[in-house]
Amino acid sequence: LSHGGGGRAMRDLIDEVFAAAFRPDAMEDQARLSDAALTELGARLAMTTDSFVVTPLEFPGGDIGKLAVCGTVNDLAVGGARPLWLSAAFIIEEGTEIALLRRIVATMAAEAEAAGVRIVTGDTKVVGRGAADGVFVTTTGVGAIPPGRDLAASRIRPGDVALVNGVLGDHGATILAARGDLALSTDIRSDCQALGHLMEAVIAAAPGTRAARDATRGGLASALNEMAEAAGVGVEIEEEALPLRDEVKGLCEILGLDPLYLANEGTLVLFVPEAEAEAALAAMCARPEGRDAVIIGRATADHPGQVRMRTAFGGARIVDMLVGEQLPRIC
Amino acid sequence: METGLEIRVRGQVQGVGFRPFVWQLAQEFGLRGEVFNDAEGVLIRVAGGDLVAFQAALTARAPALARIDAVEARDWAVAVVPETFAIVPSRGQGAETRVAPDAATCPDCLAEIRGAGRRRGYAFTNCTQCGPRFTILRQLPYDRARTTMAEFPMCPACRAEYQNPADRRFHAQPIACPDCGPRLWLERDGAELPGDPVAGAADLLARGAILAVKGLGGFHLACDAGNAEAVDRLRARKRRPAKPFALMARTADLAGFCAPTPADLARLGDPAAPIVLVPGTGALPETVAPGMRHLGVMLPYTPLHHLLLDAVGRPLVMTSGNLSGEPQAIGNDEARAKLGAFADAFLMHDRGIARRLDDSVERADPPMVLRRARGRVPGTLPLPAGFEEAPQVLALGGQMKSAICLLKGGQALLSHHLGDLDEALTWEEFLTAIADYGRLFDHRPARVACDAHPGYRATQHARTLGLPVIEVQHHHAHLAACLAENGWPRDCGPVAGIVLDGTGYGPDGTVWGGELLLGDYRAVERVGHLAPAPLPGGDAAAHEPWRNLLMRLDAAGLADVADRMLPDAPRDTVRAAVRAGLNAPLSSSAGRLFDAVAAALGLCPGRQSYEGEAAMRLEALAGDVLADWPYAFEGLDPAPVIRAMVADLGAGCPKPLIAARVHAGLARAFAKPARVLVETGQARAVALSGGCFQNARLLSETLSALRSVKVLIHRDTPANDGGLALGQALVAASGELPQMERSRS
Ligand SMILES: [Fe+3]
Ligand SMILES: [Mg+2]
Ligand SMILES: [Zn+2]
Ligand SMILES: [Zn+2]
Q: What are the residue boundaries of the YrdC-like domain, all occurrences included (chain B) (predicted)?
């Protein structure tokens, strides 16, 4: 692939790869959107943007395209918005295989379709070798928050119950195993998935849902810490309740990593009032994205801002936010 | 106008019966005047008798718990000398701000509980020479109303003793008797058992039960140390497979299971009543302290312990009553909730514990405090010359063996052992300790010192205090702690510091831990270090010794040997992670080198069940075996040692001998360049610090390799991270920000 900035080959690329995969309106310079979704009284517009870089570009369970759709859809969904539209911008390193690009774009289209969002505008730039690492994708998402819905971490109250929709760390472990040349054969696959439908189902079953967050970079530990901090509550989770695959656990043990800090791309944590916990759990379990949903803990009035994990032995460990690289502390 | 003497006494002289002692001396020598506590200690004004004899007796016969740092006498000119000698109220700001450490039952009180008087068999007997102090203190000043004894109004008999300057219970704040003091009972499933609680408890113990016993600074879990089945049951319930249990035994029973030296006996009998590491004889079940040659032994230190040991007549396991990893329980309800699953019954009382204090752990020869806690705190250390004008500093210590240190008025107060700050209750203890010691010391810090490790919770906390923060490199702090406790003056010149340790954050992005430093409080230069190896998995390498063996074998060109020695380990994945730079920082850690050797010798295959297990087993394995020759390092590179060890193992050389050669080799490898620094005039002495120097074998090998050189070692403060805060405080107070310099080479 050799395409200078804006030349004929570039247009070929757009036409051939992108226009073929996305609906024609997707590649307009400007999306013109109807306000039908926003005409309900009290509806609010939600907008989010994220850039995606990952090595390798394809990994068991997904690729960067899927990541770029799901990541932005999930950002909207955990904020309570119904995802509607996406933009997608690509920075492509010269020399990137065209077939790879086709696959990435194809998964994006399929994932958007499944998530019920439309990719309505986009852009591509090709840069010289070394100026980017393969493909970088930036997606911006727009969604609508229905009237009366207000999810915010600050609404979490002591006693609220914390749930996750599935096993932890699969994405981070997948990327590590794929990248590190670790001489390991694992069946671990990224959990990369869109959570918009799941959120709608949970909110329908548990209308008092306080807040949700997708446990992406920094893992569950970071998501819980941010929520505890924002709400001014403590959070207590049960080590034995945390859903972990044996393979992820094993990989973490070998590498000396804590699965609580591994990235997820289709795992969210949410807080609901205790009275609605069972309903929320049932709603999650009824959907494929929430098959492995469990209650992991609760918010407390004690130790505001701090996350603690009750261990199997009955003690409690402080689960901090990840600060940079983990360096050994045992002296 | 009469003339007399005004005598200032400095040191630990408050709350230890010093004023009544002075009063009695004044009666004896026919003196008149007064004595009182003030902010600086005790002030005595005397006239009209044998002043020379009085002064001599003041130091010669001082109460056992007193520590006199200085006695300064000058003329006392007064218009009218009082008619009598009197103890008068405390004076001045900051008076009565001291409290003494808790002290073991004194011989007089012991005689009373065994005698026929009103305190016969009374578990809470004490006097000014013994009993609870720091553990019952709620607030200062130290008087009964501000202790957990406030709930127990004195009976007339106790009050009379309390008010009589001639009585050894004069102003003994926790004074008590069966009529007015705390009550002891035995309970099971929340119900009190009838009969004598001590006899009932002894009976249960004799039948193999596990008992929770409320002590001075927390609860213990006790069982018959000679009953292997009971010991196993305790291990299973506590989920503590191998970490040595402490023992409690009467002096007369010691010979039945251990062989204390005279130095051990002296230390056992110290009023602090620490756990002392004493050579075992093999008479007790191996499971009491698996793989160890030494047993951790303490004498009964409260009347309750004496009564219980007298009744049961055999040594007891006395391990701290806690959930795995947590601090020990101190409240009755807390203990019931947490220890209910471990203990068959509770020996309870209703005197509150205000402050959680573990038992101190010590060695007698060479004298060494391994864990500084009950009986040692809140004792202060005088600062070395040059620090008289030091600002008030709060130092927050390390991460795993947390202890804090406060500097003020030429004294350092190093707190008790707190533990691992990731543990939620220990973290709360840490925050409490900062507030608590700050109040106690009337402390207004001008700056806060901490480690340079960004991931230590203490370091993160330092940044929230709104004070200037001084980050001190880990091993610089270890070195400074050693200098401080040896009274090394601030401007006495540089020393060579051999700091052999677990891991510490290095300014060059690697993890330090086997260091030869040159410098002083202000700054150090890294002049040498162990050749680094990766720590695969970061802290996982501290839990799993084989990881270090794998790396050291690979580094020594013995990858094929590693494949043979570690057939079941995920070697290739670990090696790949190291190649990929995935959580495998380079480290010069000496502790991890010991781990590698321990793994090679088959100690701790798999995972250590407690921190330091591999190294402790290695030290125990070396025992007293003489190293015929030390393994030779290449400079500070252990690769040749690893190769020699592997060859010896292949040749069937006894493992204890290999362990001995490793200890001797490491000691010599560092002693040699350190000696050169001294002999060329670059250093004035050698200081030994870091957690590895809690290994007595390594310490004695290093001392003998440094014969004829001036060597400074830890005695009263831990060489491990329990002493870190002291060093941090001194570095922060030394006037300049620490200058970290890069390696010479
Ligand atoms: Fe250390
Ligand atoms: Mg985002
Ligand atoms: Zn006494
Ligand atoms: Zn009484």
A: 195-375
Among all residues of chain B, which has the CA nearest to that of A327? B538
Nearest CA in chain A to B500: A331
B143, B15 in Cβ contact below 8 A?
no
Are both B184-361 and B512-516+528-712 of the same fold? no
Cα–Cα separations (whole angstroms), residue B414 to A123, B135, B256, B407, B464? 63, 16, 36, 9, 21
Adjacent-strand bridge partners of B381: B412
How does DSSP classify residue B574?
Answer: H
Phi, psi for residue B26 in degrees, rounded to 5 = -60, -40
Q: Does B400 touch chain A (CB under 8 A)?
A: yes
Q: Kindly determine whether residue B338 and residue A314, on different chains, have CB atoms separated by under 8 Å.
A: yes
- What would the pLDDT profile of B210-228 be if each residue is shown by its tens digit? 999 999 999 999 999 999 9
The reply to whether residue A323 touches residue B455, judged by beta carbons under 8 angstroms, is yes
Per-domain boundaries in chain B = 2-87, 184-361, 372-491+716-741, 512-516+528-712
A114/B contact by beta carbon, under 8 A: no
Ligand with smallest separation from the Cα of A78: 2
**B658-688 burial code (b ≥16 CB/10 A, e <16):** bbbbbbbbbbbbbbebbbebbeeeebebbbb
The reply to whether residue A329 touches residue B503, judged by beta carbons under 8 angstroms, is yes
Please tell me which residue in B8, B10, B32, B37 is annotated as part of the active site.
B37
Model confidence pLDDT, tens digit, residues B506-562: 999 899 999 999 999 999 999 999 999 999 999 999 999 999 999 999 999 999 999
Name the CATH code of domain B512-516+528-712 (choices 3.40.50.720, 3.30.360.10, 3.40.640.10, 3.30.420.40): 3.30.420.40
User: What are the structural domains of chain A?
Assistant: 8-145 (3.30.1330.10), 153-319 (3.90.650.10)
Q: How large is the ipTM?
A: 0.90
Size of interface A-B (CB pairs under 8 A): 127
- pTM of the model as a whole: 0.93
Architecture of domain B184-361: Alpha-Beta Complex (3.90)
